[in-house]
Design brief:
By secondary structure, this protein is an all-alpha fold. The chain is built from 4 helices and no strands.
Length: 86
């Protein structure tokens, strides 16, 4: 049995992670660093992934408003080009 986090919970975690990562308080506050560590851990556990970048991508994909076939994680160089001409 696989445990899946509610999409709204994932959205809140993503928003909090991004706010903590961008905030100047993280570098100066032990409490902010601990909260960022906690959110990072929760995102990793919630997605079942060890890498935070992969966990963020997975959480984004599962969050409300994500397109069912969203491949935004892929770079444009990975996208197939137009078919070759005659």
């Amino acid at each position: 049995m696989t445990l899946i986090a509610h999409p709204a919970v994932l959205r809140d975690l993503i928003d909090e992670y991004e706010a903590l990562a961008a905030g100047p308080d993280t570098a100066n506050s032990a409490q902010a660093r601990q909260r960022q560590d906690d959110v990072t851990y929760t995102l990793r556990v919630s997605t079942g992934l060890r890498d935070i970048d992969a966990a963020m991508a997975a959480a984004e994909h599962q969050s409300p408003g994500a397109r069912p076939l969203d491949n935004s994680v892929l770079s444009s160089s990975c996208s197939p080009g137009p078919p070759a001409g005659p």
